[in-house]
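S.,

Sequence below, as promised.
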Amino acid sequence: MYVKVTTSGPRRYVQLLESFRDSNGRVKKRTVATLGRLDHLRDDLDCVIDGLLKVAGRETSNSSSAPIGAASLSFESARALGNVWVLTQLWKDIGFSNLRKVFRRTKHTIDVEALIRLMVFNRLCDPDSKLGVLRWVQTVALPDVQLEAVSHQHLLRAMDALMDHQAAVDSVVADSLRPLMNSDLSLAFYDMTTIRAAGLSELEGDVRHYGMAKEGLIARQFMLGVVQTAEGLPIYHEVFDGNTAEAKTLLPILKVVLERFPQLKRLVLVADRGLLSLDNLEELRKIKLPNGHGLEFILAVPGRRYNEFVQLLEPLQQRFTEASTEVTAEVPWNGLRLVVAHDPKTAFEQRQKRQSKMDELQALANAWVGKLDEQDQGAKKRGRKLSDSGAKARFYHEVKEHHLGNIIKVDLKGELFNYRVDEQALKLAQLMDGKLLVVSNVADLKPEEIMTRYKSLADIERGFKVLKSELEIGPVYHRLPERIRAHACICFMALIVHRIMRQRLKEGEAGISPERALQTLKRIQHHRVSINGSDPMSGVGTISPEDAKVFKALKVNLPSQINPVTLL
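The prediction came back faster than expected:
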């Protein structure tokens, strides 16, 4: 129950209201009593309060020697409102609230949609473990939600329900995203990242496997593939085993995307180096959109395959050498367009860096050769004696550490420590300095435009950064494969909300990031106060003009009276 001031013409009236749920579970409000005009009550406020206390059978201010304000007000702990209010409105705007229809038709006794929403909001506001979610929810006032006796098991059951009805959930997410996509020309950026997974247990169907992480370390992990539009909107994700080859994930991902978004009239796929293979190219050429239009693609060539294009690039090298700024050229290759971008500044830096490393390694090798020669001549020095086999092993390790194994060849089979510089490999490396190669079948874009489209792929990397840093998707401590997939799904929905926030803040010229916006709005709190032990009244803290600008940029109405979450 709470107090509300309503306006009727020039007059303002004070009413007592309460919230309730109708037969369909919708939250509604009804008037308990009208206390009168506000301007009249100001003079007789004490009388009104005494009257309400008498009806309730409680002590009035006249029956006590103490003033009404003395030790008669009881304040509950304030809860953050502004951040979760914004997220709730965005949740509804996007259409994620339709998840309630999915789970309403099931036999679950818990409010699955509310629990999923809770976990998504926690990722955005204060990412924590599932136990941490229970602690966090006690500090916020979630609008339109009544959660009673929430436990860790309830959250896990909600995650299980998310996977049990994955097809219906995916359909809701797709329906929510379709209006936000451009159907005429949709650029789809696809990339993968690795997510650390904890635990040593082995399970049937486990997605946690040891593989090479993006950080360059061998780690237990799973792989996450994400498809994103040119506007930075994530539209699809998939979890793969931690040791899956990236090239094998491309075709299954594309099949699902085309099924989920049949309204696309044209689709240009942009993907990074690890996804190019001859098999992929042949299969990609066969893919057709629902309207019969062929799939178009822009794929980067992996550096390990640059040697296949030497003969094609050598005639262009003179033009590249004379360039002072980045230049772009193209040559035909296997019925496709091979587009090459050459940056003279990058080429110079790469060549200088390589030569510096080679000079260091050669100086080290010469020092060891000198020491070995002195030892052979009978010279005795303090310290450990150097052997030819030891020098070979140490030098080979140093060469590999500097990624120069294809240029500096260490003779591991010979009796004596020896190495050579492969001049042909060095020449090839110098030829490829500063170059970026992409393969495409897009016919109506200039080489410069194709390269620009590919470079936009960096935006999806920023999405991965958000997942790993702001949303803290990993390390994952779940064991069960379906729980891991549910966790990834929750983080993916959080990423969608984050990117939509980012887009609206940018369009609204708010000059603030989604993270900073949520931290700022967190200061807007929901308060509850009880007078002389009566039912508490609630209200929302003051909203500053700066906060109001953020609400406006996000296209969200200012907070009003809410029913806070209840935890028992």
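Confidence is low (pLDDT under 50) at residues 64-71, 564-568.

Coffee later?
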